[in-house]
């Protein structure tokens, strides 16, 4: 477990599972090739694609690992 700058416990080491705050600076994961689809979040067998930066994320992610987009509220970083 890691503690984010806001004090939340997170299993992820890059962005907080609770608030999406970056935990440590590091290179952003490479974005996958864009998939076809409409506006909003695109989900496929491997996860979901961020509508803000097109990065691939786990299907159950609350926040985009690359840019911090909030999948639960649709709030951009």
Protein described:
By secondary structure, the chain is mainly beta. The chain contains no helices and five strands. The protein has strands at 2-3, 9-10, 42-44, 47-49, 56-57. β1 and β2 form a beta hairpin. The chain is globular.
Short description:
This protein has no helices and 5 strands. With 77 residues, it is mostly beta strands.
Biggest beta-sheet profile: 3 strands, antiparallel
First-residue to last-residue Cα separation: 23 Å
Order of adjacent strands in the largest pleated sheet? 3-4-5
Global morphology:
globular
Order of helices and strands: EEEEE
Give the rounded overall mean pLDDT.
75
Summarize the amount of helix as a percent range: under 10%
Low-confidence stretches: 25-44
What structural class should be given to the helix and strand makeup?
mainly beta
The number of helical elements comes to 0
Rounded to an integer, what's the Rg over CA atoms?
Answer: 12 Å
The beta-strand count equals 5
Strand fraction: 15-25%
């Amino acid at each position: 477990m890691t503690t984010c700058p806001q004090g939340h416990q997170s299993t992820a080491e890059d962005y907080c599972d609770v608030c999406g705050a970056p935990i440590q600076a590091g290179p952003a994961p490479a974005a996958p090739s864009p998939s076809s689809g409409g506006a909003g979040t695109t989900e496929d067998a491997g996860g979901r694609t961020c509508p803000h930066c097109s990065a691939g994320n786990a299907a159950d992610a609350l926040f985009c690992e690359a840019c911090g987009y909030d999948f639960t509220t649709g709030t951009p970083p």
